[in-house]
Amino acid sequence: MAFEYAPAPESRAVVDIAPSYGLFIDGEFRDASDGKVFKTLSPSSEEVLSEVAQGSAEDVDAAVKAARKAFEKWSALPGAERAKYLFRIARIIQERSRELAVLETLDNGKPIRETRDADLPLVAAHFFYYAGWADKLDHAGYGPNPKALGVAGQVIPWNFPLLMLAWKIAPALATGNTVVLKPAETTPLSALFFADICRQAGLPKGVVNIVTGDGTTGAALVEHPGVDKVAFTGSTAVGKAIARSVAGTDKKLTLELGGKGANIVFDDAPIDQAVEGIVNGIFFNQGQVCCAGSRLLVQESIQDELLDALKRRLSTLRLGDPLDKNTDIGAINSAEQLARIKALADSGEAEGAERWAPACELPSAGYWFAPTLFTNVTQAHRIAREEIFGPVLSVLTFRTPAEAVAKANNSQYGLSAGIWTEKGSRILSVANSLRAGVVWANTFNKFDPTSPFGGYKESGFGREGGRHGLEAYLDV
Amino acid sequence: MPTVPSNGNEAAERLASMADVTASDGALRRFLHGLPGVDTVGLEARAAMLGTRSIKTTAKAYAIDLAISMIDLTTLEGADTPGKVRALCAKGVNPDPTDRTTPKVAAICVYPDMAATAAEALKGSGVNVASVATAFPAGRAALPVKLADTRDAVAAGADEIDMVIDRGAFLSGHYLSVFEEIKAVKEACRREDGSAARLKVIFETGELSTYDNIRRASWLGMLAGADFIKTSTGKVAVNATPANTLLMLEAVRDFRATTGVQVGVKPAGGIRTTKDALKFLVLVNETVGEEWLTNTWFRFGASSLLNDLLMQRQKLSTGRYSGPDYVTVD
C-alpha cells in the first residue's frame, strides 16, 4: 500500500456565513438603495455562499459622505490613539484567523494551507506594522506633522481579498485618512467580515466603509468628486481606465497592476531550491498573483536538468479540495478567469510552444486548471508577453547574463523578478539591471509589511508597504 | 537506467564507472565542489512546509506501522549490559505485548561488544543486528583499529554496520582519505561466505555544520559504496533534522538518477514522537517516493520513539488515549 494521505479537511463550522449581506456604511449594514443583490460562489464547488448587495452610485455617495464626516475627527486624533484601534484590529484578526482563513478559502478557492500560513499572518502583520507608524509620522521623512489626504477610494482584486484590503486600509488609517473600499465582485465576504471586526474594535463610524458591487460600483467610487485619493490593485486595462477618469482632478492615484515576472535561473543556482522557488513563483495561489514568476528564464546549459527536476516536482503537487490541509493547488477564482487562462494556454499551443502538465484529475464541479508549463516559448509568443494570471509557466532560455537581463526587461510590465545563483556579485549586478519593482534573490513571492511593493512601466506606480507606503496617503 | 541495490555486484560495476571522479584528491574535490549549492533558507522552508502535511486516520495508521517497521531500536550507552540488550531485543521482536499484530522493528542497534548478545537474542526473529563500529562516535582511532572493530562486529553476527566518517579529514578537505576509509570499511563488512553486512555511513551532520558539506558528504559516501547514509550518532547537539534529512533524500534521489544505484537514508537522534516520525515519512514520500518507503531503504535511528508510536497505535485501535504504563519500559 502506498502512502496515500487520507482527507484532512479543515472544519467549515468555524465560520458562520449569513444568507445575505448589506453594504457597510457609517458603521451600519444596510441594503443597496435600489435593493439589488448578487450571489457569491465558492469556486471549488460552485455552491452559492451568500447574497451580497450591489452598491449603486447613490450608495457610493452615501459611503463617501460618511467617510468625509468621519475624517475630521479621525485625522485629528493623536497618532497614538489611531494606533490603538489598528493594534486592536490586528489582534482581533489574529484571534479570528482560523475563521477568516476558512472564509477566504471558501470564497476565493485558494488552499487553506495558503490562507492559514500566508494570507492571514500577513494581514495581521500589515495592521501591526502600520499601527506602529501612526504616532511616528513626523519621522517618516516627510517633514513635521504630515497631513492626511482625506477620503480614500480603494478598489481591490479577488486574488488576495483580505490581504489587499490590509495593504490598502492599514496605511490609510494610520496616516489619518478614512476609506471607502470596494472588494472584488467574486470575493466580497472577507471584507464584510472585516467590517464586523471594525465594529468589534470600536472603530468610529464612517472611518471604514465597505461597498460591495461590480465594476460599475468601482467606477462610481473612483469617479466620485468627494474622493481625495484613489488606490487600485487589479488589471492593467482597468488601471488605464481609472487613470483616464482621474486625469484633470486633484485626486492622488496609486496603481498596482499586472505583471509578467521573470524568474531567472543561472547555471550555478541551488537547483532544488530553485525548483521550489519556480513552483512557488507560478503555482502559489494558482498563479493568480500579479507578481507571479510566470516567465522562467533558464540558462540553456542547465535547461534539461532543471526541467526534469521541475516536472518531477510538479507531479507531486496535490490539486483538490481547497479546504483539505494537504492541498497545494486550489480552484481558479471564477469561470471568467478560467476561460481566459484556457484561451491563452491554447494560444501557446497554437503558436508552437510545447505544452506539458502532470497527470492530474480535475474535480467535476468548480473551476479548475491543471498546473501547466510550456517549453520552446519565444519572446514572440503571447504566453511570453501577456499576463495569464493562472497556473501556466512559460519557459524561455538564455545564454549569458546580459541576454537574461535583456529578455527579462523586454516586457510591457515591470513588477517582479527573481534571480537564482550562488554568486553574490551576480545577484547584485543583475538586480541593478532589472526594471522591476521587486527583485527576489534565491527566493520568490516573499512578502513583508516592511518592504515596499510596486511596479515599473505598465505594472503601475506608487508603492505599498514599508515607510514608502505612507507617502501614498499623505499630502506630501 | 535500471535501478540496482547498493550492495550487489552491479552496483560495484556502476560505481567503478564513476572511478574518474575519485581517481585523485583533486578530481574528487572538483566533483564534490561542482555539485549544486544548497540554499539554507529555501531548504528549511521546504522541509517546514512538508511538516504541515496533515496525516489522519487510515494514513496515520499506515504510517505508524511503517515507522515501527523502520526503527533501528538503539542502545548506545557505556552502561549497556547483556541483560539490557536482551530486553531491547525482546522489545524489538514484539514491540507491543498486548497486540501481536504490531510490526517488528527493523534492527537492534548496539555497540560492537554487544553484537554477539544481540545476535543470539534475535536469532530467527527477522530483526537484524546493527552494530556501530569504527571507534564510534568520534571515529578518532587509527584505520587498522577501525577495520578490526568492524570485522569483530561482523564476525559476532552483525547484519549491518553503522560507521562514522572522519569528520576531521572531511573538514580539512582530505576527501580522498575519507573516501578510501569508507571503501576499506565496506571491504571489512564482507563475510567469509562472500555475503556482506550492509554499511551505513554516519556523517555527523551536526559537526559538518553546513548544508553544502552534507550534500558533498552524501555523494562522497555513496561513491565509496555506502548502503545507507545516516545523519548522526545521536551524541552531539544537533542530530537528525527535517532539513538535513530532506537534503540527504535529494542526494540519494540524484545519485540514483546518475548511477542507477539505490542507497538508503537513516536519520538518527532527536526523533522522539510519532508526529516527528510522520513528518520524516512525508519527506520520504514527497521527495523520493514509494520506492524508499520500506525498511530496506529508510530507517529511523531512535530509542524513545518506539513507545510513542505504540501509544499512538493503541489510541488509533482503541479510540482511547494510552499512557506510559501501557507500553513496556526497557
UniProtKB/TrEMBL annotation, chain A:
It comes from the Bacteria. Residues 31-475 form the Aldehyde dehydrogenase domain. Keywords: Oxidoreductase. Its EC number is 1.2.1.3. InterPro entries: Ald_DH/histidinol_DH, Ald_DH_C, Ald_DH_CS_CYS, Ald_DH_N, Aldehyde_DH_dom. GO terms for molecular function: aldehyde dehydrogenase (NAD+) activity. Pfam families: Aldedh (PF00171). Transmembrane segments: none annotated. Belongs to the aldehyde dehydrogenase family. This is Aldehyde dehydrogenase (NAD+). The lineage of its organism: Bacteria, Bacillati, Actinomycetota, Actinomycetes, Kitasatosporales.
